[in-house]
Automatic annotation (TrEMBL):
PANTHER family, A to Z: [F-ACTIN]-MONOOXYGENASE MICAL1, CALPONIN HOMOLOGY DOMAIN-CONTAINING PROTEIN DDB_G0272472-RELATED
Name of the protein described by the UniProt record: MICA1 monooxygenase
Cross-referenced Pfam families: bMERB_dom
Coiled-coil regions listed in the entry: 23-50, 88-139
Amino acid sequence: YPTGRRTVARRAREDQMKRFCRAQAIQRRLEEIEVTFRELEQQGTKLEKLLRAENKSPADLQTQWTNQLLYLVQKKNNLMSEESDLMIAVQELKLEEQQSQLDQKLRSYMNKEGTLKTLEESQAEQETLKQLVEVVNKRNVLIQLQEQKRLSEL
């Protein structure tokens, strides 16, 4: 048992570190997206001013500006979609962490023999199991949401 428990604890720490690294990567990407949003906003503002102010410009130049503006809008929409996916991933990471903690707590209750458990410990075990099921259901909802989003984009 001690070796098995150490292995479980080591795997839990490794999983926690993986989640932490993924969370950091997501945070960095969200910050990059925010910077890109600002840049796109500035470029879009310049193009809008050019389109409104230069009515005397040749039609082909106005068409070029309009196409550039539409391209910026499309790029911004793609970034918004990516940001939405990342926010869902953040929620999923939080739920994974919660599930891991509840799983460890439940294992500690289950490792104790039934005859040695107090009434409070048995109730706490049941409550932990109930919370674990709720977290798993929330993760399932997030996965379904991602799948629906992916299908609607296709």
